[in-house]
Amino acid sequence: MNIAIILSGCGNRDGSELQETLSLLLAFDRRGWQFQCFAPEGDYAVVSHLDGKEHGEHRDILVESARIARGDIHPLSQFDASRFDALALPGGMGAARNLSTYAFDGVRMSVRPDVEQAILNVYKQHKPILAMCIAPMVLAKVLGTYGVSLTLGGDNDAARAAAHLGARVQTCEVTEVCADREHRVYTTPAYMVGTRISEIFEGAEQMVATLQADCDQ
Fold first, then answer.
1. How many domains does the chain fold into?
2. Which candidate in 37, 133, 172, 178 is catalytic?
3. Phi/psi at 170 (nearest 5 deg)?
4. Is 133 among the catalytic positions?
5. How far apart are CA 119 and CA 154, in angstroms?
6. For residue 33, which of 64, 5, 70 has the smallest C-alpha distance?
7. Bridge partner residues of 168 (DSSP)
8. CATH number at residue 175
9. Nearest 10 degrees: CA dihedral of 50, 46, 36, 194?
10. If you placed Cys at 152, which of 84, 85, 94, 158 could pair as Cys (CB 3.0 to 4.6 Å)?
């Protein structure tokens, strides 16, 4: 398998959640799967991970995402869905702030056009899409009208917003997976409900294992 991963910065408050991202990468690597990271280009408002506030600083999404990928990353504008077997979106508030406007606009959210196009290109080629934590909100906006099933943990504001957008929302515990085999969408709630990194890794591992089992059938 060759997986494309869309990152949204670096850090759970304003980018890709590091523990979720690394758990996902490790689950891929343990299977010998290849992966390539991508990220949009453009500035975003930095949130302090000490006090949770913005202090007027802005950084570039791609430049910050490169920290996670150890520099092995490409602009999302170079993404070609035909070259990959699946697409993955780790969680972190970057998905809600940088890939979409869910953090600011709620159910009236929009998704960056380049992110939306990447998701649609993969979906229309009937290739799997994986997402963790809050990232399924992006899928709810882009694919909700297709009636995809996904999880955002339990009954919360995000889950209700996703349902409003047309998604079929399933309640899952931190290590469980919502597998929509009809639409080939796989999601796990991660830190939407989890509190320990071991739980996050197990959720990512179960999500990837479920995809692997379905692909092997």
1. 1
2. 133
3. -115, 140
4. yes
5. 24
6. 5
7. 149
8. 3.40.50.880
9. 40
10. 158
Residues 152, 172: Cα–Cα separation, whole Å: 8
Q: Is the CB of residue 214 less than 8 Å from the CB of residue 177?
A: no
Contact 133, 192 (CB under 8 A): yes
CA distance linking residue 52 with residue 60, whole number of Å: 19
Q: How many CA atoms lie within 13 A of 132 on its CB side?
A: 36
Per-residue pLDDT of the chain (217 residues; tens, 9 = 90+): 999 999 999 998 999 999 999 999 999 999 999 999 999 999 988 888 888 888 888 999 999 999 999 999 999 999 999 999 999 999 999 999 999 999 999 999 999 999 999 999 999 999 999 999 999 999 999 999 999 999 999 999 999 999 999 999 999 999 999 999 999 999 999 999 999 999 999 999 999 999 999 998 8
